[in-house]
Every structure is written in C-alpha cells, then in structure tokens.
Amino acid sequence: MPELSGWGRTAPSWAQTPSPAEDLGRLVRGSHPRGVLARGLGRSYGDAAQNSGGLVLAPGPPSITVDRTRHVATVSAGTSLHDLMRQVMPMGYFVPVTPGTRYVSVGGAIACDIHGKNHHLSGSFAQHVESLDLIGPDGTTRTLGQDTDDFWLTAGGMGLTGIITSAVLRLTPVETSLMSVDTERVPDLHTLMRRMRESDDDHTYSVAWIDTLASGRALGRSVLTRGEHASAQQVRHRRRGGALPAEPRLTAPPYAPGWLISRPTTKVFNEMWFRKAPAHRVGEITDIPAFFHPLDGVAGWNRLYGRRGFVQYQFVVPDAGEQAMVEIVRRLADAGHPSFLAVLKRFGPGNRAPLSFPMSGWTLAVDLPTHPGLRTLLAELDRIVVAAAGRLYLAKDSRLDAETLSAMYPRLDEFRAGLRRLDPDRVFRSDLARRLDL
Ligand SMILES: Cc1cc2nc3c(=O)[nH]c(=O)nc-3n(C[C@H](O)[C@H](O)[C@H](O)COP(=O)(O)OP(=O)(O)OC[C@H]3O[C@@H](n4cnc5c(N)ncnc54)[C@H](O)[C@@H]3O)c2cc1C
What we know:
8-stranded antiparallel beta sheet; globular; binds flavin-adenine dinucleotide
C-alpha cells in the first residue's frame, strides 16, 4: 500500500490506490470495509485526501471541452487548473477562481470550495460551477445543478458525498493573459486593514503578504498587492499573449537541513522581502504565474520544511472580529515561530454550502514548521477564532478536534444530516472525517 500525505507532510497514512482507469462505479459498489475516497493532486495540507487502510482513487486524466458561445468548459474532475489555463488562455479566457497554486484538480477545487484573491467580488469556486457529475454510494452517476441541495453538500463537502467525475465551469473572458499590478508597502496592520477596507472593492484581486515576525510599531507590516487582467490597450506595445503557465523550472532537494526555515533565516528573508517591495508602484505588467502562483516555480517546495513537515493555519473571522485578527498577529509575533508565508485577505459573503469556509470578513493563512511549542500556540489561536465567531479551513487543517470544529461551523449538523441521507452506510470516508467525526 502506498503512503499518502497532504502537502504539509504531517500525518501520512497508507491506502490502496486502484488505477483511475478501473470502473469507478464498480469500485464504489465493492464497499471496501474502510471506505472509498477520491483524491486530486494532494495539495490540501492535512489528511483530507487520505483514507487509512481503505481505497483512495487517484484523479483521472484531464479532459477539456470549451463552448465559446456560452463561455463554459466541460472538464473532467482530474483536470488541473494548470492544464485548464494552458488550454483556455490562448482562447481569451481565464479560470474564475484560482488558489495560490495551479496544481489543484477541479474535483479538489469543488470538494474544498476553494477561494482566490478575488473572493471579495467573485465568491468561491463552486459558485462558478453550473453542474457536476457525482458517483454516489450505489455506484451510479447523477448530474447535480446549483438548484439542488446535493450540489451544495458536495461543494466544500471534502469528498464525503461521492466521487466528482466532471463539471461544467463558467470561464472569465480576458483581453490578454497578462496582469496589471499595483503594489504598496504598508507600515503596520492597522494601516493595512484600513487600506483594504476602504479600497479592496475597487480591485478584482487583492492580497497582502505580512511579516509575522515584525513586532511593536511594525506589527503586521506588509506588502499589499492588487491586480487586474491587463487590457489590450494597456499592453499594446507588448505581445498580448504573455507567457502561458509553464512547468516548474526548479526542483527542491529531497531533504532540507533543519536550520533552513528557522527564526534567523526567516527574519532575514522577511526583511529582504519587505525592503525589496516598491513603496508604491502602479500598473506593473506581469504574467499570470508571477502574480498568482509564485511558489509553483519550485517543484516540491514543501520538502524544504524537512522531515517533520509544516502546517498551514488558515482562519477567517467576521468583519466584527477585526480585533481578533490583530490579537492573533500579535500572538504570532510574540511567539516568534518562523513563517515566510503569511497572507491576509478580505472575503465577501459565503454561499449555500454548509461546510464552505469563506464568510464575509478577514482571513489569514500562515505556514508554520512543526515545532514542539506549536500545538499549544495554535490551540490558543483556535480559542480566539471561536470567540470571534470565526473558523478554520478544512483544506489546510491537520489538527482540529470534533468539539472545536462544531464550535466553528454552525451548520455542521445540517452537513452531517445531509451525509446520513446521501450515504447512510458511509461508503465515502477519509482520515479527516474520522478525526472530526463528520
Ligand atoms: C501552495 C498552495 C496554495 C494554496 N492556496 C489556496 C488558496 O489560495 N485558496 C484555497 O482555497 N486553497 C488553497 N490551497 C489549497 C488547495 O486549493 C485545496 O486543498 C485543493 O482542494 C487542492 O486540490 P487537490 O486536487 O490537490 O485536492 P486534494 O488535496 O487531493 O483533495 C482535497 C479534498 O478534495 C477531495 N476530492 C479531490 N478530488 C475529488 C473528486 N474527484 N471528487 C470528490 N472529492 C474530491 C478529496 O477527497 C479531499 O477531501 C493551496 C494549496 C497549496 C499547496
């Protein structure tokens, strides 16, 4: 049985992995005693795409058909956003939502109802899916539209409602495959949040990198980046096409020394990153990978965290919980855990999916190497998030317990009742579902 882990490499487990070429309906009907789960490209950080001792189905091959009159693509669930971008960008389209990596499958994007830098205006991935095909526990396939409850149970449903095999996705027409980007250095967290509150809605994409090691008056100093798809007019002196997303040019070494991501190295990196950002620059033309997916340039960069792996702590608090965000950034700075990747975003309203993560408010995602004191710190942060009526993102989680989860997701019982109706014998299971009693 192969070992499978999430992107953070913290809690591997072993499962049988039949070929995606096998008859999926038959595999599901075979009712394996430890259940069945679909896996995409394994970019969720924790144990969401693992099913210890059971069956884990790898993503099938990519398949993309574009309807240029309706601006939609019919795609297989195993298609990555990388493949999709390479196919549709030369036709003048972009994906409606992209996360910080394009190496996610469409199935995984729906099952986690992923968000991008445009959530405040465009919502999450499932909102752009017209319909999806789902293999249920009896092995038969149903087509579900947005007008059905089962569509919304599946969106953000972490693979527990069945196997998504394909989806019809709305595409975003764009004039060029380049971005026009505004960047500004921001001295502290209060200024950053004010800037984002006042003007995020004027920008399609908006995100801020935060130096979580800065403290005192510099607490939350950051680099705020906003972007638009560049118009043909803006790039009239350049090749409009820009570069299509390419495969990574570099590969991380298989093992990294423990000191690589430590407090001293991260402090130096963060200082350099902050200083190298322009104080204020408007309308810089960049390509898609540079703006959306800078980390994709190095294959296997997660190995740089060494054998113990790392966690990404991502939470959201409602607008009224702004003080909780400040408190958490302060606790991170006081604790001094090294993190070179911490990003702050404003979300727009959530959607009908009971387990979907986004809600109106502020979200912070922080990568942290596993470390003896980390559990205690994160448990304290969980309490602040719960007190502020916020929640953690299951696609990133590897450590929550069932009790804390129910304090965070007010519609959890609705989700559990939906699963009992859809899959009473619990054919679909995962390590995450067992840990969180989903
Ligand atoms: C560098 C990096 C940046 C990221 N940035 C963001 C971000 O900005 N926004 C964001 O929202 N997320 C982000 N993520 C998380 C990522 O988008 C999600 O975890 C996404 O679901 C990963 O897709 P995947 O194909 O790798 O799915 P996997 O990790 O393989 O699986 C995730 C879940 O989807 C289920 N699933 C997969 N395929 C299917 C299927 N065919 N049918 C049913 N269920 C299925 C699995 O069972 C599992 O529960 C980031 C991850 C990384 C590594």
